[in-house]
Each structure stands twice: as C-alpha cells, then as structure tokens.
Queue: 4 jobs
Job 1
Amino acid sequence: MGGRIGEASMNTTLLPKSLRMVVALAVLSCLWGCQGRTSATASVSEEQEIKPSEKLVADPDRRLADVPVPLGAHFKAGSSRSYQTGSRRRVDHNYGIWAKKSLVRSFYRDNMPVHGWKLTNSITGQGAYYMSYRKGSESCRVSIGPTNWCLQTRIEITVQPVSDFD
C-alpha cells in the first residue's frame, strides 16, 4: 500500500510538470512562428520595395463604401462600432489580417487617394504605422500594428468629423 501512495504522489507531480512542458512548447511555437513577423517591441524598418505580386487588393465587400479594406482582413465586431447622426458619422472599425505591416501600409497609401482621401500625416513608431487622411469635412485615421500575440497585423480605422480630431 505504501508503494501505491508513492505512485499516486508521483503521478500527481508528473502532471504539473507535463503541463508545464506543454505550455513551454506552445510558447516556443508562438515565438518561432513570429520570426519575420511583427511583434509588440519590433521596430519598423525602412519600407522595402514591394513587388507587384505581393500587393494587397481591396475587398469589394467592405463595410464602408469610401474606406478600402484589404481582401482577407477579418472584421472584429466585438471591438468595433459605428453610428451616424444626420450627415455626421463616427466609425471605429478593427480588423486583423495575415499580412506584413509594410504591405498593409502600402495598400492604404495606394488605395485611400482612389477614394478621395488625402494623406495629411504619417507617423512611424513603436512597431506601428499611423496615417491620417482628410476628405471634405471628415478625417480618417488608419493605425497598422502588431496584435498582442504577434500572429496578425492589426488595422484600426477611425472616421469622424474633422472638428472631433481638433
């Protein structure tokens, strides 16, 4: 009977150790999978030349007619909102996409002017790109950065009346 108690005790101590190994392997897999992708602490390097075959294309089924979204971007309904009062609209949309940040930035630089938006400011910092656009009485901010788990690129789009940004 003494042996059985020792065996039960030994199995109980093995379970946390094996669970720790599974967690460690999962973390290592994530870190290995993030190589070459964005991370929260990665710095944004100079944009490399992007080949035409690497360019993202616009999703024809986007939620906003005048703000393009790359094909393959997944809408995050839980952290997005939009409403309109008269002719004034307020939009906060969040997306995740499996694409390099530099490709997403190039997508917006190429596609926003097609929809009448003029780039007013562009900032790079803390591993992310921030671009501000203006069209008529509205402003649009596009933030492109890493997600918390470095598995996707995060796109945040904010559209609102110009006076709300000032």
Job 2
Amino acid sequence: MEVTKFEEKDQYHIEVYPDKNRFDMAFFGHMKSEKSIPHYVEHVEKAVGMLKPGHLTFVEIAEKSAPPGFSITKLLKQSQDIMKKGGNRKTAVYISPKLMLQRMTLNVVTKLSGLDIKVFTNKDEAVKWMEEE
C-alpha cells in the first residue's frame, strides 16, 4: 500500500492513501498560532490533490494536544474549503473524551465547514461511520 506523508514536527502529520482514496491527519501539538503550522494548508492541498472526488478523511486529536489558538481557525477553515472543493465525502474526527475544550472548539469550526463531519469520542465508531457508504 502506497503512503505519502506530510508533517510539521511536533504538531501534526498527514498520511495519504491514494489506493483507499483517503487521508488521515493526527494533531498532537500546541497549535497556538499560524507560525506553529506554517505548511498545514499547503500539506492539506497536496494530500487532497492526490485523491479523487469522494475521498474520505480521518482526523485524530491526541490527548496531549492543546486547544488550538483562535488565530488558527482561519487555517482550519481554509483546509476545510480545500477538502470541500476536492470532493471530500466524509470526515470522521476522533477526539479523546478528556478534551472537552478542544471538542467545543471543533464543534464550532466543523459546523461552519459545509462538510459531512462528525466528531466521535470512540475511535472504532469514527472509522466505522466514515467507511459506511
């Protein structure tokens, strides 16, 4: 299985699986400002560019991640616009039940995206929902 990876050290990584028409993102840093993730939008654009319309996205937010800074919501919105334009079919987000503040922030950002995004506190349920036709 072919995998292409993009990352910002200590912040996130993206793995692209063209044969599955899917990419996975994991956030594990303290994204306080745009400077902490300068290549994020570029990486999402490259990942989406490797996939066909109808692609899936799985996002995992690690327990050690800090709530994102307000200034990066602009970058999150830009990446969601790229995903939408690229034909994202579904995005499942797994976030630890312990991360209440991050879940609240995420719920606001995802509602504004126009994408089919659902937030889960159970990783298996997130993947199952995402892979349903």
Job 3
Amino acid sequence: MPRAYVPYEQKHQWPKGHGSLCPQMPLEQARALLEQAIAVPAVGANKLWAASGRWCFCAHPSPHAGTDAWHGFPVIGGEVDERVLHGLCREGQISRRELRRLRMQRQLPEAWP
C-alpha cells in the first residue's frame, strides 16, 4: 500500500503556524518526498526521513488520518543523526557535498528550494 501524505494544516499555516513551518511547495512534491523517504534502524521508531538539496524532512505516522497516513516537517540538518544523513546519501537523495552542508546547517533555509 502506498504511503499517504496528510498535511497537518492547523500547525503549518503561513505565516502564523507553529513548530517547523513547512516550505511552501506543491503537494505533489511533498508526496514525492514521502514516497522516497527511508527508515533508519535505531533512529526513532515510526520515523521516515527524506532530503532534497538544502532541506531535510522527518515524517511521523498520522493514525487519525488512516492507515499508512503520514505528516512531515522540515528539520535542521545539523540536528539530524549522522546515520540518517549517511542513509540519505547512500540512497542517492543527497550528494556528499549536500551531506556536508546539511551537517553544518544551524537553521532552516529561507525558501524552497
């Protein structure tokens, strides 16, 4: 069964949302990121990880929205476990150069992409 992306609208509304505001991207891109997301053993149960360029994302299940429904949010690359970054690089989601840049990241990028 394919994963279903279910945005958490109340939390991520611009400009007054709370938490990590998701970049303003087309819904299709968010779905594509979820489809390519990976699980990393021993790094957070029920978490999926994806990356694109300067952005790293974490996804959690949304059981209230149905089976295999997920919502995701951006995370600061410098706060992401090294095993996740290396997994994303191995899977071809980021290059070694992007891995180094994410590792040094201390705040979320300003805009997508």
Job 4
Amino acid sequence: MFLDFSAETIPYMSIITSILFSISLIFFGWSSIKSRSIKNFQFLISLFIGLYIIGELFEIKQISAFLSLPDGLGSQIHAGATIFLTIVIWMRLYYSQKSIKSLEDTPRDGN
C-alpha cells in the first residue's frame, strides 16, 4: 500500500487524526464518567486528549483562518498537553513509589 504525503493530503490527515482522537476521547470520557471520580487516570487522560484535540483543530488551516488565530498556537497547545501528561505520569509514579515504601515499612503479622 502506497501512502501519498503530498501537500494536498496533509490537511485531510489532520482531520482524520482529529476524528481518531475524538473517538478515544469518547472512550476515556465514558469510562471516567462511569467511575465518577475526577482523580482517576481515565479522567486525566481525557483532559490530555481534549487538550490535544483542541491543538489539532487549531492547526487545521481552514479553522485557524476562520477564527483568525495566530500561527503556532496549535503547536503550543500540543506542547502544553504533553507537559500536562508528563506531570500526571510523574505524580502517579511518585505517589505509587511512596505507597509501596509505606507498605514495606509496615510490620508483618505472624512473623
């Protein structure tokens, strides 16, 4: 299968990417609504995907020209979403390591 990456197909690929991210946002959003907690991982991933979709939509030339947005705003939103995801993963790692250490420090019964 041959993929054509000419200048005419790139805007369509951005739209396809936005659609795929929207589908994943629906799945993660639905699972976070079912769990009814803002602190769960599904909700945080839903926020990341939502930010990423907004950045992707701002990178589509027709939308950015219609809304008269500055160039590069979509890329800046992508960078912000990536920083948010990095902070979420590091915080989850930090708290999981902290809870594992507290489990190791507790005395065992029967030994």
